Amino acid sequence: MLRKILFRQFLSNQAGGVIIFAVFGSLVIMTAIAAAVDYSQMVATKTKLQNFSDSAALSATKIASNYMFSHMGDSNAQAAAQQIAETTAIQSVTQNAQIAGISPVPTVTVQYTSTSSISGTVSVSLSYTSNMFIANLLKYSGYPITVKSTATMDEGETYFQIIFIVDISNSMAIGGDPTAISTLEDGSSQCVFACHDPNGYGMSTEACYASGTRKSSSRTWPCDMRTYAKQQGINLKIDYVNQALEEFMESMSEYSSNYPDKISISINTIGTNFNQILSSTTDMTAAINAASSIDVENATQWSNSSNNGISPYDYKDYNYGYTNTSDYLNKSLSLIENIGDGTSPTERKTYVIFLSDGAQDVWDGDTDESNDPDTRHRIVSVDYSDACQSIKQSGIKLFSVWATYYSINDYMINPLLGTGSGSMQGAMQACASDADDFFEADDGPAIQSAITSIFSSIMSDVSLRLIGNNQN
């Protein structure tokens, strides 16, 4: 009897132990499962946060450095760049967190460090406490996650080349800003620029006549109206082009000082003639000097070599000049070598900057004056899109700057005004590699702004990189 009682007590005690063991085992299993789930979630969240941090650092560096590019010499630029970097990084992280459904938004810390007057480094740190299942189970606050990314502008990584193709036809010899335009419109020499006649061949060029005499009897052409404009302090479009390219080269010179072999520059000018005023070089001093020398080409008079209104007429040569856009875009392409991905001197990332009024003006081959007595046998069109396509299809990024043609009463130009296909604007826009690579410049300052923006875009493309990240 006693043995039976003891045996029953033993069985009862064993059942309780099994229950306790089962409960404890279940808790261990549940904790392990929760820990596995939480770990997986934490890794996934940390990966997302690292991506957010990388993206924020890259975008903040790009925008802050672009600001530095456009404010060289400004003593307040670095402080402004810090604020711009912070704003950009926070916006980037907030947007990505909302898209990913991560709440609350991670805490963002941003530090901008200037590495030169035109570049810098941005570090972005994110702090976030993950809401974990096991944290609720074990009554603690959660697992803190910290990630960090650093992006920098560093020209040392990429070989690249920039080719300028600059329209220097007489349409660039017009007022470059509102003051100059008003001066020319109101002055006695107004048509010398509005009519694209820097040599003063036009009959309305008052400066080519002796004071108080009649135009018909006291012709003293040609006048050097280009010099006249400089003497009078009249800024023409070509002056702004000249300044914009010179500033571009100076900025490039500072940026390339540590890596003089990585950046190559060349400059071609187009109009009636084609000139490569600077062949491909890594010498930034030569590039600055070449840019400073850019000027409008000399015009030819409207009639023959004597400009006396009698035959023989040679309108192919005497007609104020042409803009052989398509032929000279193709010629520029034929001179470009070493196009590539930027990994070596023979594989350079390549950029073409095409600046033009947008009108192609060519000889039509007709020498019969009776058929075409007024237009001097010229054809004005926008038929250079194939040449632009050839450049882009060669692996080149093409920027186009449309130095807009002022609205004038000219039956050859009027059909090309407006927007869309068949217009000067539409043609120049179609030339660009991307919508962001097209710039419409209504006056000289807008030309300068466009060239500055292109500098920033190129530098961002070749120099922006993620130099490291730390995951804690």
Detailed description of the structure:
This protein is α/β, with parallel strands linked by helices and 472 residues long. The chain has two domains: 2-153, no CATH class; 160-177 and 235-465, 3-Layer(aba) Sandwich (Rossmann fold), CATH 3.40.50. The protein is 41% helix and 19% strand. It contains twelve helices and twelve strands. The strands form three sheets. Strands 6-5-4-7-10-11 form a six-stranded mixed sheet, sandwiched between helices. It has a four-stranded antiparallel sheet with strand order 1-2-3-12. The chain has a two-stranded antiparallel sheet with strand order 8-9. A hairpin with a 3-residue loop joins strand 5 (263-270) and strand 6 (274-281). The chain is elongated, with a radius of gyration of 34 Å. The model is unreliable at 189-195 and 203-219 (pLDDT under 50).
Biggest sheet: strands, sense, closure?
Answer: 6 strands, mixed
Count of the domains: 2
Given the helix and strand composition, which structural class is it? alpha/beta
Shape: elongated
How many beta strands in the DSSP annotation? 12
Mean pLDDT: 78
How far apart lie the N and C ends? 68 Å
Strand content: 15-25%
The CATH topology label of the largest domain is Rossmann fold
CATH H-level homologous superfamily name of the largest domain: von Willebrand factor, type A domain
CATH architecture of the largest domain: 3-Layer(aba) Sandwich
The ordered H/E elements are HHEEHEEHHHHEEHHEEEHEHEHE
